[in-house]
Design brief:
Distance between the termini: 49 Å
Strand content: 5-15%
Helix content: 40-55%
Order of helices and strands: EEHHEEHEEHHHH
Shape: elongated
Structural class: mainly alpha
Number of helices: 7
Radius of gyration: 21 Å
Number of strands: 6
Length: 237
């Protein structure tokens, strides 16, 4: 796939068959009943792909555990790549279902390909604190200056298709609920400075592990928010 590294897989034309004798439906049977079947000689290859991500975390959402292997180019539209390893992406079940057989008509409509797309080493995930009662967190993408306009739109599109902002916000709400009791104790004993110091240490720890995890973005925003450190931490529901 020479078009993969340059972000142009959407240009590959769709087909209904591999050869006149080998159509898309037959390729789907070969994949499910032979390649991916438990006990099949090729199952080891399938499992190696499925188990490749670090900690078994889905590379498409960065949160849920891998439960399946997804065809980046849908097998119904690109049967010729049905068994091509670079087209087989480990994913969680939810991301697999969210993507389905959607077809990108432009470069910007492509979801991210974990084998080809490199987002770099700068911060790009942001968590905004909504100063409300109850408190709420909203995630968004803040493209670094070195991203191309196409890559920026692709990342935003990927977030929308996979429902990542909603997923991260739900995880952030759960995280806040878990730490709310400790924050109230800190606030009562040491005031805003104690709350801020604790949150900064949590941020620094997450930053050292993953610059663009939802927890890194969350704790950065919390420790930088004067409103949260002074009173917002008491509004966690």
């Amino acid at each position: 796939m020479k078009l993969g590294p340059i972000g142009k897989l959407f240009q590959i034309p769709t087909t209904a068959e591999v050869t006149p004798e080998l159509n898309g439906k037959l390729m789907a049977v070969i994949y499910k009943s032979h390649f991916a079947r438990v006990g099949a000689p090729t199952r080891g290859i399938y499992d190696a792909i499925r188990l490749a991500p670090k900690y078994g975390i889905c590379p498409l959402c960065g949160q849920r555990s891998v439960g399946s292997v997804d065809h980046y180019l849908p097998q119904s539209l690109h049967p010729i790549f049905n068994l091509t390893p670079v087209n087989l992406i480990p994913s969680c079940t939810d991301c697999n279902k969210a993507k389905l057989a959607k077809v990108a008509l432009t470069a910007e409509q492509q979801t991210l390909h974990p084998y080809f797309d490199d987002l770099g080493d700068e911060r790009w995930l942001v968590a905004d604190i909504l100063e409300s009662n109850p408190l709420a967190i909203k995630y968004r993408v803040r493209p670094p200056s070195y991203w191309t306009p196409v890559l920026a739109e692709r990342v935003k599109h990927h977030f929308e298709v996979m429902g990542i902002a909603v997923l991260y916000a739900a995880q952030a709400a759960s995280e806040l609920a878990d730490i709310s009791h400790a924050l109230v104790k800190l606030g009562n004993s040491g005031g805003a400075s104690a709350v801020r110091s604790h949150l900064y240490e949590e941020f620094a720890s997450r930053l050292a592990s993953d610059k663009n995890s939802w927890k890194t973005a969350l704790y950065e925003s919390l420790c930088l928010s004067a409103w949260f450190c002074n009173e917002g931490f008491r509004l966690v529901n």
